[in-house]
Write a structure and sequence with these properties.
Helix content: 40-55%
Shape: globular
Number of domains: 2
CATH architecture of the largest domain: 3-Layer(aba) Sandwich
Order of helices and strands: HHHHEHHEEEH
CATH topology of the largest domain: Glutaredoxin
Structural class: alpha+beta
Number of strands: 4
Number of helices: 7
Amino acid sequence: MTKKQPRIKQKARPDVSLAKEKELIKDHTLDILLAYDGERRSLIPILQDIQAKFGYLPQEAIKEVARFMRIREIEVFGVATFYNQFRLNPPGKHPIKVCLGTACHMKGGRIILEAWERRLGIKVGEVTSDREVSLERVACIGCCAMAPVSVVDEGVQGKMSPTRVDGILLSFELERKGQIASGS
């Protein structure tokens, strides 16, 4: 048996892309805020506009909104977490919604949700570390005859099974490898 060599700890370098991303979020948020007067009644429309721009409510944007409206960040955060329409995590490149309405629940929607969670290693409301896939639970998609249903990249996938979950994830992996091979 060979002995493992100790890893040499390298100095952490500042993540330039993260700093640049924060700066872009701040700039775009300030652009949105210019359309508002800063009154408390504007908070929800402001948050809706920010989410429409980014797909979620970034922490940096919440800070800017609080500063603009002269309220505490926790107040903005409280509104954002009270309403189900707001997301605090960035959506994945491939958003997945699993229906747990009555028909889907009765036909195994919970099993499908658990299959997604196991395969992805995340829970509902989370995003994979590579930001490829996000997972949500929804009440009803309106495709009860196709139950159980998942919505993948805005496309309805009916008669879902754990095997179909594997197939969809395989297609994501093949797509990703194709992009890497083509240099994109």
